[in-house]
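During the reporting period the student researcher (J.K.) took over the structure-prediction task from the postdoctoral fellow and processed the backlog of single-chain submissions. One of the processed entries is reproduced below for the supervisory committee.
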Amino acid sequence: MTTTTADDDAPARSLDRVLLIGASRGLGLALADEWSGQRREVVATVRGSRRTPLHDLADRDDRDIEIETVDITEPEQIASLRERLAGRTFDLLFVNAGVTNEPEGTVAETSDEEFTRVMITNALSPLRVIEALADLVEPDGTIGVMSSGQGSVTNNVTGGHEMYRGSKAALNTYVRSYAARHAGDRRSLVLMAPGWVQTDLGGSEARLTVDDSIPNVVRTLDSLSGSTELRYVDYLGRTVPW
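J.K. obtained the following structure tokens:
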């Protein structure tokens, strides 16, 4: 694998104003912690009105975090968020939304309801968010999406986790289609594979801790600002094969 960097003739942009979609827990919460801890301005979203660990983080005196509410599986809520953010601009839009399901079983054994839940959350909804909010990103800013190494078709040599793998592969394909439709757009576009991380979604057996992954995710996103092509990379900036 190769390590990617921004184009030589396109200086990296400082990603100081961040719009983070999906930050109530897990990797999203860790991203909010990392960015706000670096004195960046963060607007981060949760679902519903229930208090979350993000609220505890935002209450700290040393953090600049504004909390918004959106369920990205509800198009009308995405539209409402867009209206509330009208007139504002961000250096980075990062969509961190995803669910998993039981890893056992084949996709053919998945119920219609479970297939729909995972695909709408992991593949369809992130693209709806990007389409709705992309114009809030500076013309030379960055749009990032939390993908997964399991979304790589090339690297799928062991099988397993079929429903989750398929949803992330679909996400990657849809983002690639988005990039093709927006050829010439100067915004950086990044699909991020954070590694297998110890969270509620990743489980306690995961190889990486949040501290192993998230600071490197942030550094990689910073290093790719100014790039003008779609990148699919891991948390260390290494290219992931499609």
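The committee noted the following: The chain has one domain: 17-234.
J.K. will present the remaining backlog at the next meeting.
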